[in-house]
TrEMBL record:
It is found in: Cytoplasm. Monomer. Oligomerizes upon binding of cytochrome c and dATP. It comes from Oncorhynchus kisutch (Coho salmon). This is Apoptotic protease-activating factor 1. The keyword ATP-binding applies. GO terms for molecular function: ADP binding; ATP binding. WD repeats lie at residues 656-687, 739-780, 875-905, 996-1037, 1037-1082, 1083-1124, 1125-1166.
Length: 1251
């Protein structure tokens, strides 16, 4: 018995033992010849019903496939339908040799009955289809007690006739239901005279058989008319053969079927499902929709050419795929190959070219060629319906369409279309998917191939008709309902245009930003990218590149909901891009109607290195890898899912809920047929393959398949104490070998290019090399020795390793370093040290060059040439830790994955050519049209505020720059450094005007007073210093207990003296006299750190916000709290008064912004999106800065991105998505038309309102 059948029996054993009566079932099994009389006696000797059931099942488990099928059939016959359903999916396929005696019922009686009734013998080459056959038998058993109809319907060549004949080849069925016999009549396409002849022949045969049994009965003259023939047949079936079955094969016409409406038991085969509607009596039906499985089709071909299936040539599987599972086509090809066994390639080519007329072979089938069978089905349609059916030639294979699409194509009402489609379905010319509402319709591949061949010359005009009908129906714009019809047009309109050779219209559609916006919103960006790739030979290369780049780099944004403004996204494209040109025109037009759009003025200074950005998971991505053919990418992470998508477009191909915990690694096998995953749930899984047992006791960190075809093995490593590295043979249930040697968790394992060795990287500080054949340790390299100054303090964890292309060197990562070792000598050849503030998360060697990619925790990826020891590139783009990098198999692409939930694919040539180093830049300072920023952490730049062009760049400072300030009266800039020093430089000469020393820790904020003579600084050392910077005189303001991150100048009246307002993490606000250093006020404002403070325009009030989730409004006159503002659910990080002083805006770490009435403290509006975004925030992160427009109608906020809000409604007017994230501050021009900020990966944004 097949393993699947045996396993199913064992799983269902308890249910079977509890419910079945063995004595009822054994009668059927004895009739089938699978149970002997002695075996029955032994089972009946058991004292109880349950013990008999146990004994029967134990005996059944020792028998073969036939016994399983007989037991299943017995359950069906004895009305154990629920139990039979448990076994149905595991019904085995029975070989023809073993099936012959069994399927014939095991008795000569069955053979005699079927022979007398004219039932065709089994074809010489036959493969059982047990599931379908049992379904037909189940329906036939319903005819046991009363007359009725069983309809077996399906398209031409689906095997209906063979199935009907096989269904009645059963001893129990005949003896119990049809003891009067089984009578077969082949019908086909007949006129009235031919039908009369067929019925006369049947009547004569029945009377002759009756006379042989009862010599007293006499033969009658043949009936002279159809009416007379019908009455004669009724008499014979009701009187002489009262419990017999009449099988009508290949019925085409309802008028023919009515001639047999004589209150008897009928099984009919047809292509028209609806035929039985015209007759009376109970009806049931069996659809023959599914064709042969690949194994069954190969078995048929093997029997024809007298070979074993595994000995068939390589073209056999391709031929089977081209046959689309059709028993007719497989048999026709098999019969041809029996005579011409060397024509495998020829017949494969014939099938691929759809030359159906060449596929002919005389047989018992009415049509000796496939084209004849298909044509006959179409000819029975009315002329009007035939024309409509031909229109279906334009459909794509494996595509299901709703009736609404055809309503557009045919210009008919939907109800009329459904009636037409019902006719096609009834005649097996079309299939209907009833699992969807509304129904979806589709053609079998063979039907579509036949239509395409028949209408080859008219295909272009048929596709043109589709396009024109669509344009007529949707002249005012495409459908946006999102239903199946809408999806069809967005998916296939470009296909129809291309097939219709409507090149200009295809250009206009695909190069339209409106089309891009609507299709991306409904279907996502991946389908659009696929369109540009598919029609790349038709479309203009340059413009196609513009749209493809836009979608590839903004795809992760276009997946967000609510859907972003595509025009605003497109304004970030290069000025030379067609996408930008269209976006600017639309933005200008919308601006005249009150729309708000921002042009990124200085974007030309940047060039994206990514080719594709995808957001496949909601959560951190720990691993991503290319398939070996480079066309697919698999990714996994904290979402517990595994996703596979196209490497060109990001289109999802597969998504699996893979594990019960975080998925830490995924890997393709060499042939890409298998995918392995490992997880924190301690399991290793192989998808599309067998499942290794749970041998690891701790989380499994990494998995990898072998690199060569010599032997398929899977290596895994885990946090287990001793048995932490294993080799698996996928075809075995347990591990093949375990490597013993590491005493701490093993973080990574990697096969050498020739699979001779396996490297393992461990938290014990070592890199070990193992012989794969023996699982013995070959070499051990103590990487911890490379950190002698740190080894005593903390453990050295080796994160990962990778082999060079030739396998002569091995590269490993630990802490902030990467080491290259010679494999033979274990000598260190190269040491790469990265930033001291970062750790190396992963490294991977390029298979086609000397490059190695390094993933770092400070969001960057570095490329190094290990031959020349030079860094080739330092590229940014990710917004959080980068967990993995991998080159494509040909070395042309590099992918990276990160905690920021994205996978980025970059072109290696572009990365190395750019060699760009973009480092985090310190906060910027804006004065009029001059912009100041610290770049590359130790360099200061002054840029033009309109264009972003560099006007001045300082020399390297001795310490990192943390803050900057511009003097409004003199051409000078102030720089606050990490070492506590303040440097004042002249612009543009760079001459040092002053070096101010006094702070003992990092300077966090600096600001010149309006007259320019005084510079104020605050520091981590808890002090504020007021400098007369030209003379070096200093007043120290001491009193805060924690770092002072910021301060503000406070003037209560125009004539009053300016005081200094400072706030700190110590929860206090302090007011100072800057001249004397006297502390005027010391207010304990909050229970938590004070995070922001803002002074009202008239100086009468100031507001504070805190980590205690509250905001407060204070009086500058009484120094008392006048308003306590509660409601935020997280730290309140920013605040800003409106210019009229009537409103206060506050923003928190959850991304929520609240607008308050300053006069009475009431809440006016909450500015937030309905749902959290991918960063689990309402604003992509903390709300870090707020600004009102001069007319107080618009509010600007920064966080993960920049947003503009309508103050009255609390609704978002626009959103700008930066490349990076975590925007700290934004500087706004007085007229609220220019906005300048910088993101966490060092990109500067000068945004200008589109007018």
């Amino acid at each position: 018995m097949e393993e699947g059948a045996r396993s199913c029996l064992l799983q269902s054993r308890s249910s079977l033992e509890q419910d079945i009566r063995a004595s009822y079932l054994m009668d059927h099994m004895i009739s089938d010849g699978v149970l002997t009389g002695d075996e029955e006696d032994r089972i009946r000797s058991k004292p109880t019903r349950r013990e008999q059931a146990v004994a029967l099942l134990e005996l059944l488990l020792r028998k073969d496939n036939q016994a399983y099928i007989s037991f299943y059939n017995a359950l069906v016959r004895e009305s154990y339908g629920d139990l039979a359903s448990l076994l149905h999916n595991s019904l085995p396929l029975v070989s023809p040799e073993a099936e012959k005696s069994f399927s014939d019922g095991g008795t000569r009686y069955v053979q005699a009955v079927l022979s007398e009734g004219g039932v065709p013998q089994r074809p010489v080459v036959f493969v059982s289809r047990p599931a379908l056959m049992n379904r037909v038998r189940e329906k036939l058993y319903r005819l046991q007690k009363e007359p009725g109809w069983v309809t077996v319907f399906g398209m031409a060549g689906s095997g209906k006739s063979v199935l009907a004949a096989e269904a009645v080849r059963d001893h129990a069925l005949i003896t119990e239901c049809f003891p009067g016999g089984v009578h077969w009549l082949s019908i086909g396409q007949l006129d009235r005279s031919d039908l009369l002849v067929r019925i006369q022949s049947l009547c004569f045969r029945l009377e002759q058989q009756s006379q042989e049994k009862d010599p007293s009965s006499s033969l009658h003259r043949p009936p002279g008319s159809l009416e007379e023939a019908k009455e004669r047949l009724r008499f014979l079936m009701l009187r002489r053969y009262p419990r017999s079955l009449l099988i009508l094969d290949d019925i085409w016409d309802s008028s023919v079927l009515k001639a047999f409406d004589i209150q008897c038991r009928v099984l009919l085969t047809t292509r028209d499902r609806s035929l039985a509607d015209c007759v009376s009596g109970p009806k049931s039906e069996v659809a023959v929709e599914s064709g042969l499985e690949e194994g069954q089709a190969l078995e048929i071909l093997a029997l024809y050419v007298n070979r074993k299936p595994q000995r068939l040539p390589e073209q056999a599987r391709s031929i089977v795929r081209e046959c689309k599972g059709s028993p007719l086509v497989v048999s026709l090809i098999g019969a041809l190959l029996r005579e011409f066994p060397d024509r495998w390639a020829y017949y494969l080519h014939t099938l691929q070219q759809k030359k159906f007329k060449r596929i002919r072979k005389s047989s018992s089938y009415d049509y000796d060629a496939l084209d004849q069978a298909m044509a006959a089905s179409i000819q029975v349609l009315s002329e009007e319906h035939r024309e409509l059916y031909i229109d279906l030639t334009v459909l794509e294979k494996d595509v299901k369409v709703p009736a609404k699409v055809l309503s557009v194509l045919w210009d008919l009402e939907p109800e009329e279309v459904e009636d037409v489609l019902q006719d096609f379905v009834n005649k097996s010319l079309l299939f209907r998917d009833c699992h969807h509402r509304p129904y979806l319709y589709y053609l079998h591949d063979l039907q579509l191939d036949f239509l395409a061949e028949m209408n080859r010359s008219g295909l272009e005009s048929l596709h043109t008709k589709v396009v024109r009908q669509y344009q007529q129906r949707y002249s005012k714009g495409p459908p946006t309902s999102g239903d199946e019809e809408c999806l069809y047009w967005f998916r296939f309109l470009t296909y129809h245009m291309a097939k219709a050779n409507l090149t200009q219209e295809l250009y206009s559609l695909m190069f339209s930003l409106d089309w891009v916006r609507t299709k991306a919103q409904i279907m996502g960006p991946a389908h659009l990218i696929n369109d540009y790739l598919e029609y790349s030979t038709i479309l203009d290369k340059e413009v196609r590149g513009h749209f493809q780049e836009f979608l590839s780099l903004n795809g992760h944004q276009l997946e967000q909901r609510p859907f972003p403004d595509v025009v605003q996204l497109a304004l970030s494209q290069p000025d030379s891009s067609e996408v930008y040109r269209q976006a600017l025109l639309q933005a200008q037009e919308r601006a005249t109607r009150g729309g708000l759009y921002l042009d990124w003025v200085n974007k030309s200074s940047l060039k994206s290195l990514s080719r594709l950005v995808v957001q496949p998971h909601q959560g951190s991505i720990y691993s991503a890898c290319f398939s070996h053919d480079g066309t697919k990418i698999a990714s996994c992470g904290s979402s517990k899912t595994l996703r596979v998508f196209k490497s060109t477009s990001g289109e999802k191909l597969l998504e699996i809920q893979a594990h019960d915990d975080e998925v830490l690694c995924c890997a393709f096998s060499l042939d890409d047929h298998l995918l392995a995953t490992c997880s924190s749930d301690r399991k290793v899984k192989v998808w599309c393959g067998s499942l290794p047992s749970d041998e690891h006791e701790e989380q499994v960190n990494h998995c990898q398949f072998t690199n060569t075809r010599r032997r398929l093995l899977l290596a895994t490593c885990s946090n287990d104490k001793f048995m932490n590295t294993k080799l698996w043979n996928i075809n075995k249930p347990s591990s093949q070998n375990t490597m013993f040697g590491h005493l701490e968790p093993v973080n990574h394992c990697c096969f050498s290019p020739d699979d001779a060795y396996l490297s393992t990287s461990s938290s014990d500080g070592t890199l070990k090399l193992w012989e794969v054949s023996s699982a013995n340790e070959w070499k051990s390299i103590d990487v911890a020795d490379m950190f002698p100054e740190q080894r005593e303090q903390t453990e050295v964890m080796v994160k990962c390793s990778t082999w060079s292309a030739g396998g002569r060197t091995i590269i490993c990562a630990a802490r902030n370093a990467v080491f290259v070792f010679d494999v033979e000598t274990a000598a260190m050849l190269l040491e790469i040290r990265t930033s001291r503030l970062s750790t190396v998360q992963y490294c991977h060697a390029c298979p086609s060059s000397n490059l190695v990619a390094i993933a770092l925790s400070h969001y960057a990826v570095e490329l190094w040439d290990i031959e020349t020891s030079k860094k080739m590139a330092d590229c940014s783009g990710h917004l959080s830790w980068v967990h993995g990098v991998q080159f494509s198999p040909d070395g042309s692409l590099l992918l990276s994955c990160s905690d920021d939930q994205t996978v980025r694919v970059s072109v290696c040539v572009c990365i190395c050519a750019s060699a760009v180093c973009l480092s985090i830049i310190c906060p910027i300072c804006l004065h009029q049209l001059t912009l100041l920023a610290g770049v590359c952490v130790c360099v200061c730049q002054v840029r033009n505020g309109r264009t972003g062009a560099v006007m001045f760049q300082s020399e390297n400072q001795e310490s990192r720059i943390r803050c900057t300030a511009i003097c409004s009266q003199t051409s000078a800039v102030g720089l606050g450094r990490e070492d506590g020093t303040i440097q004042v430089l002249e612009v543009p000469s760079g001459t040092s005007l002053a070096t101010l020393q006094g702070h003992t820790r990092t300077v966090l904020h600096c600001q010149f007073t309006p007259e320019g003579h005084t510079l104020i600084t605050s520091s981590e050392d808890t002090t504020i210093r007021v400098w007369r910077w030209r003379t070096g005189e200093c007043v120290v303001l001491e009193g805060h207990k924690e770092q002072v991150r910021c301060f503000s100048l406070l003037t209560t009246t125009p004539s009053s003296e300016t005081h200094l307002l400072s706030w700190s993490f110590d929860g206090t606000i302090k007011v100072w006299d800057m001249s004397s250093g006297e502390r005027l006020q010391d207010l304990v404002c909050h229970q938590g750190a004070v995070l922001a403070c803002d002074v009202s325009p008239d100086g009468q009030l100031f507001a504070t916000t805190s980590a205690d989730k509250t905001a407060k409004v204070w009086s500058s006159a009484s120094w008392e709290c006048v308003r306590l503002l509660n409601g935020h659910q997280d730290c309140v990080r920013s605040c800003r008064f409106s210019w009229d002083g009537r409103r206060l805006a506050t923003g928190d770490d959850n991304g929520e912004i609240r607008l308050w009435n300053v006069k009475d403290g009431t809440l006016l509006k909450i500015c937030s999106r309905d749902n959290k975004d991918a960063m689990d925030s309402l604003h992509g992160g903390w709300v870090t800065d707020l600004h009102f427009s001069p007319d107080n109608t618009v509010l600007l906020s920064t966080g993960g991105y920049i947003k503009w809000w309508n103050v009255e409604k609390g609704e978002a007017l626009q959103t700008f998505y930066p490349t990076g994230a975590n925007l700290k501050r934004i500087h706004v021009s007085p007229d609220f038309s220019t906005f300048v900020t910088i993101d966490n990966i060092g990109i500067l944004y000068i945004l200008k309102k589109v007018e």
